[in-house]
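Running this now, will post back.
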Amino acid sequence: MMAKPAALAHPPRWQGLAPVWAPSARLLLLGSFPSAASLAAQQYYGHPRNQFWPLLSALWGEDLRALGYEQRLERVRARGLAIWDVYAACEREGSLDSAIRAAEPNDLAGLAARLPQLQAVAHNGGESARLMRVTAALGRPVYRLPSSSPANASWSFERKLAAWREVFARHGLLTP
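Update: finished.
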């Protein structure tokens, strides 16, 4: 008698987070998809080792990590930054971008249409940047920033900060 083949295991399917934006946003910053820690907390860049909030803190001269999450988002909106991810949903085991499968893209054009002051789009890391052809079609400058993820250990914090500062300065996000 032959044994039945084992059922193929599928990684769990995850739903992403809603965009953070205000009509006054000048820069749309796109990650790939929230980490498991971010999804559990329902917060962008919720992993304690992710350098996203420390980068913004250094750029804006204010320790955003000392604030509650909703206060952080208020600061983000007030500074002209919008945050979202390129993927709305995906299958993934763990948190690595390399494990993303069956990704469903977000409606980036739909969000951009609600941002009348949008000047540019920046991708936070390589997986997000894979959709640069989509964001280039929005008709605004598109940048690839070094990932704020703890998995991006090849870039020092200072080197990441310099790259982020250049883009933020170019679009007026360093002034209060």
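The radius of gyration is 17 Å. More later if anyone needs it.
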